[in-house]
Amino acid sequence: MRRTSRRRSSARCASRRSPSTGGEPMESSQEGSLVMVKLADGDDLFANLEGAARRHGIESGAVLWGIGMIRDFELGFFVGPQYERRTFRDRHELLALHGSISLQAEPRLHLHVAAGGPDYAVVGGHLFRAKACVVNEICLAKFEAIRLTRVLNPTTGLRELVLPP
Question: Which DSSP category does 50 fall into?
Fold first, then answer.
C-alpha cells in the first residue's frame, strides 16, 4: 500500500482563525510576578506582548523565554549606527526568545531571538517584528522596584537601557 502525505507550504501555517477578523484574543494568566502568554496563529508578537504587559501592569520587566513557531519575521544585526536587516517569510521554530520590557521608553520591547528553519539551520538576532505561527508560549516577569528607562547613547546611536542606582 502506497502512503502519501500532504505537505503544507513552509511559508504558511495551519490557521485556526483569521487574524483579520479578530478571532480568539491572546490568552494570558498571572501568578505572582510571572505572566504566561499564549499567542495563536497570525497574532502579531509585538502588539500582543505589549498588550499582555499593559493588561498585567508590567511597566518594567523581562521576557524570560518563548517557544513555538514564528513567520514573517525581521531580524537585525547591529553594524555601527544602524542594523543590517533581513526578513524571513517561512515558518521557523522559535527556539529562544528573550528581552526587556520598558513601556515608558522606546523601544518598549527589546527582543532577541533564535529560530530554526526547515533545513535545521538556526538564525538569530535583534527581533524587529514577527507573527506567531501555530502557537507561541511566552513567559514574562514583572519588576516591582526596578524601573527600566532608555536614553540615547550618542556613541552607539542606540537607545540604551538605564538602570536605577
Answer: H
Contact 63, 100 (CB under 8 A): yes
Whether the model clears a pTM of 0.70, i.e. scores above it, the answer is yes
Cα distances from 60 to residues 12, 25, 49, 104, 150, in angstroms, run 34, 23, 13, 8, 11
- What domains can be seen in the chain, in order of their start residue? 25-162 (3.30.1330.80)
Place of cell 544602524: 82
In one letter, which amino acid is 125? G
- Closest to 89 in 3D by CA, of 77, 73, 104: 73
Q: What is the pLDDT of residues 85-111, one digit of tens each?
A: 999 999 999 999 999 999 999 999 999
115: left (phi over 0), alpha (psi -120 to 50) or beta: beta
102, 142 in Cβ contact below 8 A? Answer: no
Question: CA nearest 66: which of 92, 97, 44?
Answer: 97
Q: What is the DSSP letter of 25?
A: P
Q: Which three cell numbers stand for residue 134?
A: 501555530
